[in-house]
Specification:
21% of the residues lie in helices and 34% in strands. It has 102 residues and is α+β, with helices and mostly antiparallel strands.
């Protein structure tokens, strides 16, 4: 029998990428990043494109302390005026391959 214990405040971070589609408007990026800040998410990467029909598609890669926050984050982003899609993407950041000596 091996005795184990769990840390009260885990230090591991959960990395996730989300995609958001919304009607483009002034302050949209600010509203999204405010939601992420409210959950203490560390934004690692962000990009946004706006189509000719004024639909803004953005992707955010960020870290959160607990993966259970993800659904709450997505729910709060859906509440932002003009947002009609907020979902986790399947893309993840990959580690660079290690060079091996031949």
């Amino acid at each position: 029998v091996v005795q184990v214990s769990w840390a009260e405040h885990p230090t591991a971070k959960f990395q996730v990428e989300i995609e958001i589609q919304a009607l483009d408007r002034e302050g949209l990026i600010n509203d999204v990043t405010q939601v992420l800040a409210d959950y203490r998410a560390n934004i690692l990467a962000a990009s946004m494109n706006t189509s000719s029909d004024r639909v803004a598609t953005s992707r955010y890669t960020f870290e959160v302390a607990d993966s259970r926050y993800l659904q709450a984050i997505l729910n709060d982003i859906h509440k932002i005026p003009g947002v009609f899609l907020a979902k986790r993407t399947t893309a993840t950041l990959r580690k660079q391959p290690v060079n091996q000596s031949q």
